[in-house]
Amino acid sequence: MPKTMRAAQLVAYNQPLEIREVEVPQPQGEAVLVKIGGSGLCHSDLHLMHAEIPMLPYLPFTMGHENAGWVEAVGEQVQGFAPGDPVAVFGGWSTKPDRFTWLGEEQLTDVTKWVGIGQPGGYAEYLLVPTYRYLLPLEGLQPVEAAPLTDAGLTPYRALKKLLPDLYPGSTVVIIGVGGLGQFGVQYARALTPSCTVVAIDVDENKLRIARDLGADETINSRQADPVERIKAMTGGEGAQGIVDFVGADTTMQQAYQMAGRQAKVVFVGLAGGSFPFGTRLLNEATFTTSSWGTLAELSEVLALARKGVAKPHIQRVRFEEMNQAFEDLAHGRIEGRAVLVP
Questions:
Q1: pLDDT at site 281
Q2: ∠ Cα 159 204 157 (to 5°)
Q3: 169, 244, 266, 341: which sits with the fewest CB atoms below 10 Å from its CB?
Q4: CA-angle at 180, arms to 178 and 184, nearest 5°
Q5: Of 192, 156, 105, 104, nearest in space to 268 by CA
Q6: Alpha-carbon gap, residue 73 to 67, rounded angstroms
């Protein structure tokens, strides 16, 4: 095993990533060293790079929270995994002994311990995972396709599951924003709510075309038509029963609020920093909530769906030298699915 490795690190805010040579960490105890087979580029990393979400513990820092690969080396207390095993890495790491950890909701306990945000991430050739308990066997999936499932696949899955108790046959599910996460949202909505009408909303006609290919019954280009009026017309004035906003801008949040039907569930996922005025004018018992990443158990369900062909990531492979251009494309909406670093 080499002593050093390449890593794409953020050296200064508002600056491109730099490819640097850093030390390969050594696993001890329950820790596992994973050779990265794929690490997804996430829009939230753009917020970190520009200090819009000031959470990085130090600089230079290696981001990358969507990771999969092969076990390279294990600590002396590791059980059930051996070098060469293909694995997905759950990223909601935590060391807090609180009720959310005990409930398996570790992603809600301490964001400062998350991989790629509080601890060095996978934009490197190797990743040190603090415990083998954060690994899931891939069982037939390839690391490059599994990497985006750990966030871009997991986050929409948790959000869509929140809708299920409020849906009924013939109701309408709306996915706002069909980029990397929203495309998974369309697939889950189609698979988990087969008796519902799935509607995708975006400003990009190419992404709407992909949404149709993934199973959306209807698509709305919100630059060309008022999505609230369209949803109301489709539903006989009722509104949608389930809505997930993967954008989170002022406009989309307001649209979600206005198109919600009676006792609807609206889940806000996108981190565009939006808000909307919530008042008593809407007296239809609609519920508004947020959703944060997902659990280890939910990630196992996402991987199972991927093995069944339900969760199909649309991947653009990226080399170290192409990462800054890929982030530039991501910032301007030019990535159709998920860009994935393949070292």
A1: 65
A2: 15
A3: 169
A4: 75
A5: 156
A6: 16
Collapsing DSSP to helix, strand or coil, 286 comes out as coil
The token duo for 82 is 């051996």
Could you report the average pLDDT of every consecutive run of 10 residues in the chain (343 residues)? 95 97 97 98 93 92 98 97 98 91 92 94 98 97 96 97 95 95 95 96 94 96 97 97 97 96 96 83 85 96 95 91 96 88 96
CATH of the domain spanning 154-290: 3.40.50.720
Q: Which residues, at least 6 apart from 301, have a Cβ–Cβ distance to it below 8 Å?
A: 157
Quote the CA–CA distance of 40 and 76 in Å, as a whole number: 29
Indicate the domain borders of the chain.
4-151+294-341, 154-290
Please count the other Cβ atoms lying within 10 Å of the Cβ belonging to residue 145. Answer: 20
The pTM for the full model equals 0.94
Peptide bond into 60 cis (omega under 30): yes
Topology of the domain comprising 4-151+294-341: Quinone Oxidoreductase; Chain A, domain 1 (3.90.180)
